[in-house]
Write the structure tokens for this entry.
Amino acid sequence: MLPFKLIYSDEYYLPIGQHVFPAEKYRRVHERLLETKVADGSDFITPQPASDQDILLVHTPQYVYKLKTGTLSAREEMELEIPYSPELVHAFWLAAGGSVLAADCALKDGVAINIGGGFHHAFPDHGEGFCMIHDVAVAIRRMQRDNKIRTAMTVDCDVHHGNGTAAIFAGTHTASEPLPSSGPSTLGRPGMMRSSHTGNVFTISLHQENNYPAFKPPSSIDVDLPDGITDDDYLAWLDNALSSGLRQFTPDLICYIAGADPYREDQLGGLGLTIAGLKKRDELVFRVAKTRGIPVMVTYAGGYGRRVEDTVTLHCNTVVSAKEVFGGQV
Ligand SMILES: [Zn+2]
């Protein structure tokens, strides 16, 4: 039995038909974790859909109304890039409920993993890039409303920039610690790190610069990575961004968005990370959180490997890494 909870429902399945987003990945991760005995049935808890009240902590009443009544415009549905249905709305409300539950469990156990969620391209008033509802933002705002946390830090390692996250938590102050406009000189590859933050949520995004979304609203720390960056350079950038962020800001909760699409065989990504490198990435985030005694909740976000098997392996490895770092027999 794991010393932390995995949050999962069979209803996480996204009813979107044939699509580059492997809608069945959640079910397959759940199956694989059980088959490989990384987890047993008692490690999983089933979420309830978020309440409309929770969704409205982040999203506008107009947008929520359109989703609930099926009245998105053709353009809004096109931007979402997945076909609207009431069942899809249910799946997103459930993913948000899962992230709320994961945040709550992380505050009790030190870590918790939502076997879903991470829909970081959703904005308050619209969805885009396969993301209808920003489950992580809903979880943060709900924890803040309940006075369970005051501050949070998002650590977004999906290959795509966390534009919705940045927009939702945008602020106006400048960084307490100015950063050089390029990375540490020890890094062999180019890249760019920018920093500015305010408010009670600090956002970090490491992403491929030459990728969706075209417009990247500023996060507290943005690390623009060059095409094809490999394991060691990526891990150095991540280490640097985490150290810098945690020098500037002390979060009550870390929300780790563990996208599987920095993988070198991803169909929608252009970075060069291996399966082993991505596992080290997960370990690095968990070690930093554990060392500093900061609870961490995890969501899965993207993953479009040429072989769905690889995407499943990458997502399962996030659980294996948590188990190695936070205890429990592997
Ligand atoms: Zn992505």
In short: Residues 158-160, 259, 261, 301-302 surround zinc ion (CB under 6 Å). Strands lie at 5-7, 44-45, 111-114, 152-156, 192-195, 201-208, 221-225, 253-257, 296-299.
